[in-house]
Amino acid sequence: MKLYESPSPNARRVHVFMAEKGIDCERVAVDIRAGENIQAEYLAKNPAGRVPLLELDDGTYIGESVAICRYLEGLHPEPNLFGDSPLASAKVEMWQRRAEMNFMAEVAGAFRNITGFFKDRETCVKEWGEVCAEKAPRALTMFDNQLAGSAYLAGDQFSIADITLCIALDFARQVKVVTLPELANLDRWYAEVSQRPSFAAG
């Protein structure tokens, strides 16, 4: 397998996931700042033009970070990171989606629109970025409330939902476009999760 990647929260999500599983593979750098991901050669592999992208040995390509993680989970089911029962899987999916849509996507919207990082290839609206920057920290209360009664987002088992929220928080701190509140349960959870050896892999 080959993993086409660039420094990004989504690539880091796959890195952490693979480290939790003890999986490694060849990695190919893609320069998204220079637009390598939107050139014909890369688009032939992934028409969405995003990273990361997993190339299998038979030439099959899998795009989208969670899809890549689901494929790897199927190959290496332990440790389980998507839920080990129908109910557990539903809870993991629920909190994974909430982490991605209610926080991670808002941080990304703030970053892209306020900084204009990709203004050479997309329309940036600073006012919308400011709306995203206001919405993102408000969403964290939902996660803090959940973590008041459980060790991890989806219950007592570490999952991809925890990976997503943790890397999103790290990204928010890195790009500095969102003011993060102090929330006791979330801070306790983050202190524990971010020290897992897998997070050093990303």
Instruction: Average the pLDDT over all residues and give the rounded result.
Output: 96
**Helical residue percent band:** 40-55%
Largest sheet: 4 strands, mixed
Please provide the count of β strands: 4
Distance between the termini: 18 Å
The succession of helices and strands, N to C, reads EHEHEEHHHHH
Counting DSSP H or I runs of 4 or more residues, the number of helices is 7
Summing up helix and strand content along with how strands pair, one would put the structural category as alpha+beta
Short key terms for the protein model shown above:
4-stranded mixed sheet; Glutathione S-transferase Yfyf (Class Pi), Chain A, domain 2; 7 helices; about 5% strand; 2 domains; globular; about 200 residues; about 55% helix; alpha+beta; Glutaredoxin
Architecture overview:
The model has no long low-confidence stretch (mean pLDDT 96). The protein has a four-stranded mixed sheet, with helices on one face. It has 202 residues and is an alpha+beta fold. 53% of the residues lie in helices and 7% in strands. The relative contact order is 0.15. Helix 1 links the parallel strand 1 and strand 2. The chain starts with a strand and ends in a 9-residue tail after the last helix. The protein folds into two domains: 74 residues, Glutaredoxin; 116 residues, Glutathione S-transferase Yfyf (Class Pi), Chain A, domain 2 (Up-down Bundle), CATH 1.20.1050.10. The protein has seven helices and four strands; from the N terminus they run βαβαββααααα. Helix 1 packs parallel to helix 3, helix 1 runs antiparallel to helix 6 and helix 5 crosses helix 7.
